[in-house]
Amino acid sequence: MKSNVSSPDAPAKSVVQVFFPDKNASYAYFNDRFDLRPGDLVYVEGKLEGFQGRVESVSHNFKIKLSDYKRVIGRAETSLHGRLYLLGSHLAAFSPEVLPWEKALTWFCAPEETPEEYVVGDQELDISLEDFSGMDVAPEIGQRGQNYYLQNRVAYLCLEGDRGRAIVKGTHAYQVEFCYREGRVRSLTCDCFCSYTCKHEVATLLQLKETLKLLEKQYPEQANGYFAALSKDVFWEMFLRNGKPGRLDVEIP
Question: What pTM did the predictor assign?
Answer without folding.
Answer: 0.87
